[in-house]
Predict the 3D structure of the following.
Amino acid sequence: MSFARAIATVGGITMISRVLGFVRDMLQARFLGAGMEADAFFVAFRLPNLFRSLFAEGAFTAAFLPMFSGTLHKEGEAAAKGLAEEALSFMVAILMIFSIIMALAMPWVVAILATGFHDDPAQFRLAISLSHITFPYLALISITALFGSILNAVGRFGPFAAAPVLLNIVQITGLLLSGPLGIGAHWMLAYGVPVAGLAQMLWMIIAAKRAGMGLSLRRPRLTPRVKKLFALLAPGILGAGVYQFNLLVGTNLASWLPTGSVSYLQYADRLNQLPMSVIGVAVGTALLPLLSRQMAAGDHDGVKASLSRGLEFAALFGLPATVALMVIPAPLVHVLFKGGAFTAADASATAAALQAFAIGIPAFIVAKILSSAYFAKQDTKGPVRIAIVVLIGNVLVSLALIEPLGHVGLALAPGLTAWLNVVLLAIGLRRRGLLSFDARLKGRLWRMGLAAIGLGLAGIGLTELLARWLFVGTAPERIGALTLVILGASVTYFALCFLLGATRIAEIKGLLRRGKTTPPA
């Protein structure tokens, strides 16, 4: 599968997952709103969601995939499967012990995640109960990530990218059944998390077996290869999870703000995650196996070329997404979430948080790409040192902004400090001789920037023109008006890209072509 095709595959499937995620979020907003139950569930879901991001999209994949890929190409399939079986067996044993400890310690864990809930004992107890239900997802998604990493290493990106679809389907089903069954929506959502995790794990096991990569469960042994894997994994958790840890800081501080603040941040982050997942995760997922092979071969020129093409793809689609979320946050939130228990005031507060979050989107996407080069080199210590600096910066900025800006300040802080993360990652790669923007990337970035400005102006103009239908029309009118705004702004952007030479139609078509697994020239 070609580099561009891999991006298109992961990005396209992720987009489907995100669309289903928005359906789920719309139902959540209507059933839960932004009250006590919603805040409690979002705190309970933050913990397994953190591990999903770390393991399914972050540290475990970053540590395991280069090791597996290198073993596969140097020692053959049997040796690679042996490594995977050693890792699986040890992982299962560790996760069983860790899950028991976490279950017993859950009151203290929730107290750390949401210190402000102590003022409301009922909300605190509810958050603990929901967290007990959701936490088993950690073990299930960790095993899912191992099988997904194996499939990515052999060029089969589709099954792992599709796994999150199952979570959305299960939770949508739970929400729709909550009324007929007479069970609270927050309980149905919580139980849906481990059920979806089990479905995802079984899906990946079946996909791996079909690819000839079925694994057997061995007796757990701390072999030299397992020691190396977990030595890479431990610092990688912090390095790959800087964004999620920053969100944990925001969630904790938001628990001290008026009721609903945690929910505003959660709903806004769902929209904010769309470009970060569809673009950042897609490019990073496609890059990691390619960079791992280039690093193993000592092809530093190839690494620099791959990073330039990855950054070009990210800029082409990330810049318009960023500008769109910054200039039309209100229409997006009002159309997607407003209704039922989710009021107009809730929508306005969420839109303000979304606009603040959007500032950091380009930085998060670029950081995902740059981090892939560190992980391909099996260097997880470099990103972790940077992550510590960024985390400290995020805490300081959050504390400085929470008083004057409230929950909006908590949305702004991770975006601002994400740019510090990018600068430090880039400096580290340049010192290693692995990062150098080629002439094509330099020549196209400013053209993409001009096209993105055009998109922003078109979005503002269309929003003003269609304001009557966007904010006070019927549901079909609001959806239709928002569709027109998005389509009009998108057409403006890509038309300007083609006119200015920021990209070519043939290159867009190239996303759908099959070929060798190399970055496009």
Residues 261-296 form the longest helix (36 residues). Residues 514-521 have pLDDT under 50 and may be disordered.
